Amino acid sequence: MRKRIYWLLPNLDSAKRTMDELLLARITERHIHFVAAEGADMTGLHAANFLQTSDLVQAAQTGMLIGAGIGAAAGVAVAYELASTAAPAAVAIAMAGIGAVLGTWASSMIGSSTPSRRLRRFEAALEKGEYLLIVDVPRTRVTEIEALLESNHPEGHFEGLEPNVPAFP
Q1: C-alpha count within 13 angstroms, C-beta hemisphere, residue 139
Q2: Contact between 126 and 36 (Cβ < 8 Å)
Q3: Could you tell me if 54 and 114 are in contact, meaning their C-beta atoms sit under 8 angstroms apart?
Q4: HSE-up of 8 (CA within 13 Å, CB side)?
Q5: 3-state SS of 104-119?
Q6: 2-54+116-162 topology per CATH
Q7: What pLDDT, on the 0 to 100 scale, is given for residue 67?
Q8: Which region among 66-70, 112-116, 129-133 has the lowest average model confidence (pLDDT)?
């Protein structure tokens, strides 16, 4: 299980040094992500992808739940109308599955084009030219990595800790 640390850095040089130090501290590149304003120089940094910068995952999860609920309700209504059906529960379950798939698909289309709600609070800093570091670290190393960042980068500042890192992004 990992925790996600958010850290704001003032410029590209500071971000590059931080990236190198995290790699030396044996944090793999796939767990280090940087976000900057559109068009900012990201040379030497591992840029965050759309899974970290959009609401795709959250939207898909919500769509799945809502779609399954609506599908199950529709399945119950259809099964009630078709009273002669031998397995009304199977109709409701099948309709819930279809609703979950359609809800996931529709919501993920919207979520992929929506900026992440988790990163909204950093918009002003990013527009000023700062770089946001998102690093996912094992729970046992959170204190160590925070201490490393604090001691080596007084120009940056800690912006929070997310207790549960999503499995995919």
Answers
A1: 4
A2: yes
A3: yes
A4: 16
A5: HHHHHHHHCCCECCCC
A6: Alpha-Beta Plaits (3.30.70)
A7: 92
A8: 112-116
